[in-house]
Each structure stands twice: as structure tokens, then as C-alpha cells.
Amino acid sequence: MSKPTITQVIQSVLAAFIGVQSEANRKHAFENGSLLTYVVAGLIFTLLFIGVIVLLVSAVL
Description:
Layout: H1 6-18, H2 23-32, H3 35-60
Helix pairs in contact: 1-3
């Protein structure tokens, strides 16, 4: 099997982020992907999510 592309990493992280990751995709990610890649992608998306929430709250208040 081949390493996941950046698009597949993003899709996997976003699917896991909202809780809709399929078992097959999760297995593929764990078996073929690098832990560091998924951790970094997860941290980036978490920081982006927090930033968007802060901006939305600031705009409302």
C-alpha cells in the first residue's frame, strides 16, 4: 500500500475531527500514514478551529 497523499491526510483528519471517520479509512491511516503527519495536521486544524471560534465570538460581541 502507498503512503496517503496530503489530500487524504486532510480528509482523514477532518472526518475524525467531526467524528465520521469510517473504520476502513481509520485502519488505512494507521497502517500507511506517519503518526507525525496526522498529529501535525490535527494540531493545525485544531488551531484553525479555535481561531474561527474566537473570530466569530468577537464579531458577535
